[in-house]
Structure formats: C-alpha cells, structure tokens
Amino acid sequence: MKQIFFKALIGISILLFGGISYGQIDKRLDINLSPQEISSNSFNGQLSLTFKNISKDTIYITLDPFNIDVVNQKGFGNYVILKRTKYSPNRITFVKSDISISDLEGSSLISFLKFPRILILIPEEKYEFILNVDENTMLELRDSSWTVSKDIWCAVKSCVDNILKNKPLKIIEEFNEALVSKDKINIDLTSENQINPSVYFYNNIDSCNERDRCYTVYDSVILKCFKNYCY
Is 145 helix (H, G, I), strand (E, B) or coil? Predict the structure, then answer.
C-alpha cells in the first residue's frame, strides 16, 4: 500500500467502518467500471468507467486529480474509505485478490489554486472515461490478480449555482471556463507523487494547523458542492 498517501496527504479520523452511516443520497448516476477483476498478465493498462445521469438535474464531476491507489499488503488499516459526506478526489483502487481488507474512515486534505476541469453530465445522457494506469503502477500490479474499485464524488448544478451567485464575477467566469462538455474523455490516473502544483495541493496536518489557513476561494465551491458520493 502506498503509505505516503495515507500519512502525508490524508488526515485520517480512524473509525471502524462497520456500523457507520453516511447518509446515502438519492442515486443520481448509474456508474459501471470495467474490468472489476484483473490479472496483470492480461491487463492492458486501461479501465472504462461509464456514467449515465439518471437524475433530473445536471451533474458535475471534477476531473483533476483522479487518483489511483494499490493495496498489496495484509494488515489492519490497509484501505481507507474517505469520508463520504465530504469532497475527496475521485479514486480507483486496486486490491490484491488474496487480501481481506478492513475499511476505515478518513478525509482528504486537498486545496485548489484554481478550478480543476469539471465535466458536465446532462440528464439521461451517457458518458465514458478511459482511465490510463501509469507505468509504475503497472509494475506494482505484475504477477498478481486484483479487484478494482471506484470512489466517485459529484455535485448538483443547482447547488453550485447557489454558491457561485455570491462570488465575484471573476470566479464565476473561471468556473465556466473550467467546464468540459464531452461524452468520452481520456484521464491519466494520478498517484500521490504526481501532484499538479498549478491546480491543487495536499495539506498535511502541520501545514494547516491554523483554522482555514489552507482554505481558498476555489475550495469554497469545490468542497461545499462536490460532496455527493455516487453509490
């Protein structure tokens, strides 16, 4: 498992997952991940993630970062379920097939320096992500079989509009410029050592020990609105 990701990038409030209720929202997206089981010897390094907006609302999904993680060692705390009532970057996780994992609760301390790319999902329309796995991760996956899982967060347009209406015109314009309208999109999955410093950064506990020290105007939109976990 990538220990740096959990130690440096995630402030973890550790609770046993069993018995925790996340306040599940109405299902807004029909999501399918393929494949969900892989063997490294036959895996070509690409995953397909398809979406259909089954709600009556326009839905937004952030595209940057789209994280990747690998769970390849047994032990308590191998897999952190990021808090499903708070925004976290979308994530694909590979879990080695012989590992019985324990779910824990955590949160991702991320701040944005500008709006990331944001995909627009229109009601009843279908969309596809082609997710590309980097070479270093492919080396980690070799000679084993894996279960593949997804963690996806989204926002409802009306919520975003309500937050944006009180922002300066410049911020509203920047948000609109960040919107992407495509039915098929390629995404390079990002590990914790591939941070894009022009768009976002991860806060460790020491650097953000003062209240709201790392909170930006972009966070005030992303973190407040993009917190609907897509079951």
Answer: strand
CB 194 within 8 A of CB 100: no
What letter represents residue 51's amino acid? F
Radius of gyration of the chain from Cα atoms? 17
Torsions phi, psi for 14 (to 5 deg): -85, 120
Mind giving me the DSSP string for 204-225?
PTTTT-STTTT--TTHHHHHHH
Q: What is the pLDDT of residues 6-53, one digit of tens each?
A: 433 444 333 333 333 333 446 899 999 999 999 877 899 999 999 999
Q: Taking the model in full, what pTM does it have?
A: 0.84
Write b or e for each residue in 83-93: b if 16 or more Cβ atoms lie within 10 A of its Cβ, otherwise e.
bbeebbbbbbb
Helix (H/G/I), strand (E/B), else coil: 38: strand
Report the C-alpha gap between 207 and 176 in whole angstroms: 31
Report residue 221: phi and psi, to 5°: -100, -55
H or E element in which residue 135 lies: helix 135-141
